Structures are given as C-alpha cells and as structure tokens.
Amino acid sequence: MRVKVIEKEVIDPLGETVVDKIKIIPVPSKINKISYFNNTKPNADVILAAVAESLNKEGKNVEKPAGAGATEEQLKDAAGADLSIIAVGDCGSCSTWVILDAIRLEKEGIPTISICSDNFMDYARSLAKSHGADDLRIVEIKHPISGQEEENVREKAAETIKEIKKLLNID
To answer: UGSC-like domain: from which residue to which, for each copy (predicted)?
Structure first.
C-alpha cells in the first residue's frame, strides 16, 4: 500500500496586524452593579446565573444574539453597570463576538470579563491580541457547554467563578 502525503501551509485567519493597543479598563475596587451579558447560546444563562449567585451583586441581565455583534442599544444597556461579564464563547463565531463585544465595551470605558470554553481560549486570546487588546480579561469554562444538563454546567461554572473572583480580588 502506498500513501501519498501532501503538506499544505495553513494561513492564520487572524493574520499579523499592527494596531493601536486598547486600554483595558481596570476593574473598580467597588462594584455596585454588574451587567450579565448573555449571548443566548445554550447554557450561557445557566453560567451567568451561577456567577451572579456567587458574586451576590446587583445585576442587570442583557441579551444579544450568539452569532452576531451586539447592537448599539444592547451595548449601551450592558454599559449601564460597573462591570460586564459576557458569556459564552464555545464556538468560532460566538467566541469572536464575545471578544469583539468585550473590546467595544472596554473602548467605552466599561471593564469586562469574557467567558469562553477551554477549546476556544487560544483563539479568543489571539483574536483579542490581533485587535490590540492583549490583556483583555478572558476566563475559561470546560468544553462542552451546549447539550449539557444544568447541574453539569453549574459544576463547570464553579471553576470559572474562582477565576472571576481572583480577577475581582474576592476571596
């Protein structure tokens, strides 16, 4: 049996770009209100509910479509808080828009924490970097998320919540 091996060069869709660095807004020492920005992916609401319950801060729920960027109105709604937590990036297009919406909020002066699955963390970080947001706060949740029972998603979210609390200097 003969096998012909062909090597192909794959082009990185993010490319190498030269962009201005985006100032990542520091998380305020006092947080009165958090916007929980739900991209309506299956179980994003479960993750955000678990985060909200754990942080025990006044919250505002904002929704947007998963595979598209937030509208100006949705961004304005999410910006009506001291911090926005955005979930969930667990595929290519939804991870893209979680990161790009976080960058848009950071540019408006709202600190963000984005939640992406571990399978998409490298991509999410590369995308943020390609847009000048090298230090964008991105935390991971174990993949898969869609199609999982609520109890399983909450167990996965428990580890993510630990990361979020570290970013917020909460024990």
So the answer is: 9-169
Contact indicator for 39, 97 with CB cutoff of 8 Å: yes
Structure confidence at residue 144 (pLDDT): 97
Mean pLDDT by 10 residues, the chain (171 residues): 69 68 96 98 98 96 95 98 98 97 98 98 96 98 97 98 97 76
Q: Where do we find the tokens 């192909």?
A: 8
Measured CA distances, 60 to 96, 158, 164, 165 (Å): 23, 21, 17, 18
Q: 109, 118, 53: which is closest to 82 by C-alpha? A: 109
Q: With beta carbons less than 8 A apart as the criterion, state whether 140 and 154 touch.
A: no
Q: Report the b/e string of 150-161 with b at 16+ CB within 10 A.
A: eeebbebbeebb
What are the extents of the domains in the chain? 32-166
What is the helix (H) or strand (E) element at residue 160, kind and residue range? helix 150-167
Q: Which pTM value belongs to this model?
A: 0.91
CATH 3.30.465.60 fits 32-166, yes or no: no
Measured from the Cβ of residue 2, the count of other Cβ atoms closer than 10 Å reads 3
Burial 97-114 (b: 16+ CB within 10 A, else e): bbbbbbbbbbeeebbbbb
Residue 52 phi, psi dihedral angles, 5° rounding: -60, -45
